[in-house]
């Protein structure tokens, strides 16, 4: 799980972003290192471990406070923080490399490094250079990102580390939903999305309304699962989708366009807070989906 900007999670909640874990370790270590009364420190604990009473974080039954994952397959950001501070091995680690997407126009870029001055570039443009602080950290604040994909690259001492982050474009949910509601209020008809990209989450298709995607039109969802206001609650679970309908009749999605759920950016498997879908219809009649690519 990943978060930007940082927000303090509920300790026994299902949202435990890796970046906040790294923040707690970094700032605690900073305070302990500056106190001459403390003669030693240790980190707890090495790896996530089983705990059947735990219903928190991305997986139930796991205490996720480890520096590496339960199966030892992935080292978390906090692991690299201690490696940069406690070993002589060269370290240049970009925090949040596992983060796929952000919803803000700017992001904080944090690096753990023990190899001297580092430079940051976004989409090939140099943002700046900086030296690690006393806890081997470099933080660039409020780095502007372009809508869509961004390449983040950090270089230092002949080394480089990079990642790609998708920035959510502005959502058009409100304006598209208004068009659907207006057509429904007039007795029904067709709402057409022209060629080009359109961004929405949780659209609610009303009875007697057809959503038509023209050739070249791409309806993309949000990369934030919390951007789906039209989610349908069914049997205690939330069904999130770009286009939803409940109890509607005579509805359709047609055309030569595409509904793109950005699946590569969605939570995987049963990972909290859950994946969204392209389309989710519940208890509807006379439904037609024709021609469009999902």
* Percent helix: 10-25%
Strand order of the largest sheet: 4-10-9-6-7
Low-pLDDT windows of residues: 233-237
Profile the largest sheet: 5 strands, mixed
Percent of residues in beta strands = 35-45%
Q: Output the number of helix runs.
A: 3
Query: Which radius of gyration do the C-alpha atoms yield?
Result: 23 Å
The run of helices and strands is HEEHEEEEEEEEHEEEEEEEEEEEE
Whole-Å distance between the termini? 26 Å
Structural class computed from helices and strand pairing = mainly beta
Query: How many β-strand runs?
Result: 22
Task: Describe the global form.
Answer: elongated
Task: Give the overall average pLDDT.
Answer: 89
Provide a descriptive summary of the structure in words.
The chain is mainly β. Helices cover about 15% and strands about 35% of the residues. The chain has 3 helices and 22 strands. A 5-stranded mixed sheet has the order 4-10-9-6-7, with no helix packed on it. A 4-stranded parallel sheet has the order 11-14-19-22, with helices on one face. It has a 3-stranded antiparallel sheet with strand order 3-5-8. The longest helix has 16 residues. It is elongated. The two termini are about 25 Å apart. About 0% of the residues have low confidence.
């Amino acid at each position: 799980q990943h978060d930007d900007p940082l927000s303090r999670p509920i300790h026994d909640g299902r949202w435990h972003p890796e970046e906040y874990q790294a923040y707690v370790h970094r700032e605690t270590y900073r305070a302990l290192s500056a106190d001459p009364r403390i003669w030693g420190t240790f980190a707890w604990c090495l790896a996530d471990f089983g705990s059947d009473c735990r219903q928190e974080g991305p997986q139930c039954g796991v205490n996720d406070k480890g520096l590496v994952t339960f199966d030892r397959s992935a080292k978390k950001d906090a692991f690299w923080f201690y490696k940069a501070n406690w070993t002589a091995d060269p370290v240049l680690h970009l925090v949040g490399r596992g983060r796929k997407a952000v919803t803000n126009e700017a992001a904080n870029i944090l690096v753990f490094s023990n190899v001297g001055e580092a430079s940051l570039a976004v989409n090939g443009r140099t943002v700046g250079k900086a030296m690690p602080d006393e806890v081997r950290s470099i933080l660039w604040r409020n780095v502007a990102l372009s809508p869509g994909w961004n390449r983040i690259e950090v270089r230092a001492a002949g080394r480089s580390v990079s990642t790609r982050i998708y920035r959510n474009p502005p959502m058009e949910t409100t304006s598209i939903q208004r068009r659907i509601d207006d057509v429904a209020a007039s007795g029904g008809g067709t709402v057409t999305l022209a060629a080009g990209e359109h961004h929405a989450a949780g659209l609610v298709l009303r009875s007697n309304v057809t959503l038509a995607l023209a050739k070249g039109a791409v309806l993309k969802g949000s990369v934030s699962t919390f951007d789906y206001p039209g989610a349908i609650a069914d049997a205690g679970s939330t069904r999130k989708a770009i286009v939803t309908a409940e109890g509607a009749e005579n509805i359709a999605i047609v055309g030569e366009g595409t509904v793109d759920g950005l699946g590569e950016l969605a939570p995987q498997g049963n990972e909290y807070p859950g994946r969204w879908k392209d389309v989710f219809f519940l208890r509807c009649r006379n439904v037609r989906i024709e021609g469009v690519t999902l």
